[in-house]
Amino acid sequence: MKKNRLRLYLGLLGVTCLLALTTVLLSNGLLLKTRQLKVPVIKAENPAPVQAMAQRLSRAIQIETISNKIQLNPNFKSLEEVLKKSFPLLWQRLSPQIINQHGLLFHFPGKNPQEPIVLLLAHLDVVPVESPSAWKYQPFSGTITGGYVWGRGAIDDKQSALAILEAAESLLRQGQRPERSVYIALGYDEEIGGTQGAATLAKALKKQGVECGFSLDEGLAIVPGSMIGMKPPVALIGLSEKGYLSVELTATQAGGHASMPPKETAVGILAAALNRLQNKPFPARLGSTSREMFSWLAPEMTGVSKWALANLWLFEPLLLKQLSGKPATNALIRTTMAPTMLQGSPQENVLPAEAKAVLNLRLLPGDTQHTALNYLKQVIADPRVQIQARSGFSSEAAPESDSKSTDFALLHRTIRQVFPEVVVAPSLVLAGTDSRHYQSLCKNQYRFQPVYLTAEDLKRVHGSNERISIEAHAQAARFYLQLFKQL
Ligand SMILES: [Zn+2]
């Protein structure tokens, strides 16, 4: 009898707890408030006829400005000439400064020079074409067909540069000026680190005493369907970008004839080290930018995703597990390492005295090059493997910019005016941009490319058949014009 009563009591307690938990989970979901600004719908103005803008982009694409051949490449000068012809007023009235051979710097003085300066960034170089035969149209033909402009740079990043210039030219044509002073800085070696272009452009700005309120650079675009549980398309504004570090692992062992190998070879030791790393990736965590992204997205979501994100106190481990499942979301929650290069013996019957591997790391904000190297040492735990940062380009993760600033709100508002159907949220950029070189000049740095892209389009960036729809390019130009008008 007593046992039955106890069972009943425990059963009731269980049901009560379950009910209380359900109530908490549901009410946390219901309490979520939208972070989206309500803005009146406007009819954003085209800076120029849509076809003419496509033509100008096409002409810029036709100039082969691959950044790995800058020194010997006269094409960067040709591109400058093409741009000069395309945007005559910009050259006449703003006379751009040429920085370190090919960097272009325009200064658009505002009506209120005491207001914080705005820096608009883009780059004019492109990556090489790996397999020209895979392209439907020649990669540097700038073919316009089927509603698209085709070619290398159509998305990354001549599109951004041209859209910014279209907006600025149109403003000059209308005899207008922005309230705040604007600098437009176009680099020419972003794809190989930006040390010649953006870095010297930033130096020149610093010399001229420029301090900017915010910079806007390429980064994230609007990719419908990219977020599980979200119906509307999402416009993500990058508050930060991951750091970059290449690390060389070297295992050393006596070389010799391959007919009498020792138990452990340099290759075996190196392989074991790589295997340990693969089994023990950097720990996953929700950084503050990702946490913020989810807090902006959750109120706009439906179903399970909404409740889960509203109750991260309970579901965070589950969310991290889910995000770990796909490379794109896994990269949001941890420092990643990709083994990219391997080297052993130069001959098949010779034991190598040294085996080398290169790991390419992308650092999550919060991790530094120093802490990452320590982590590798700790996991490999083998003194026979030397671990050192490779010489060449590296960068720490960018500091996280403020999503509560008036400038973030300005971008938010402009996006919702030009793309009223989208949801805006802050986020983290997984790749690197030229922005890092301007860090010390800017209070905040944002990264957003105002174009619609499909998941399939994203594969064309640095891949084959890169293209942008004529409408997407026009929309980007409308965005920049609207931004200029609201600065
Ligand atoms: Zn780019």
Question: Helix and strand layout, with pairings?
Answer:
Elements: H1 2-30, H2 50-61, H3 75-86, H4 88-94, E1 97-99, E2 103-108, E3 117-123, E4 144-145, E5 148-150, H5 158-173, E6 182-187, H6 198-207, E7 212-222, E8 234-241, E9 243-252, E10 256-257, H7 266-279, H8 288-297, H9 303-310, H10 312-324, H11 327-333, E11 336-343, E12 350-351, E13 354-363, H12 369-380, E14 385-389, H13 406-418, E15 423-429, E16 442-452, H14 455-460, E17 467-469, H15 470-486
How do you describe this structure in short?
With 487 residues, the chain is of the alpha/beta class.
Your description of this structure?
The protein is 38% helix and 21% strand. It has 487 residues and is α/β, with parallel strands linked by helices. Among the domains are: 226 residues, Aminopeptidase (3-Layer(aba) Sandwich), CATH 3.40.630.10; 91 residues, 2-Layer Sandwich (Alpha-Beta Plaits). Strands 1-2-6-3-7-16 form a six-stranded mixed beta sheet. A four-stranded antiparallel beta sheet has the order 11-13-9-14. Strands 4-5-17 form a three-stranded antiparallel beta sheet. It is globular and about 85 Å long. It binds zinc ion. Zinc ion binds next to loops.
Strand order of the largest sheet: 1-2-6-3-7-16
Instruction: Give the beta-strand count.
Output: 17
- By CATH, the superfamily of the domain at 50-218 and 430-486 comes out as Zn peptidases
Mean pLDDT: 92
What compounds sit in this structure?
zinc ion
Structural class: alpha/beta
Number of helical stretches of at least 4 residues: 15
CATH class of the domain at 50-218 and 430-486: Alpha Beta
The CATH architecture of the domain at 50-218 and 430-486 can be named as: 3-Layer(aba) Sandwich
Poorly predicted regions are none
Shape: globular
Helical coverage, percent range: 25-40%
Q: How far apart, in Å, are the first and last alpha carbons? A: 78 Å
- CATH fold type of the domain at 50-218 and 430-486: Aminopeptidase
Largest sheet: 6 strands, mixed
Query: What is the rounded Rg?
Result: 26 Å
Strand content: 15-25%
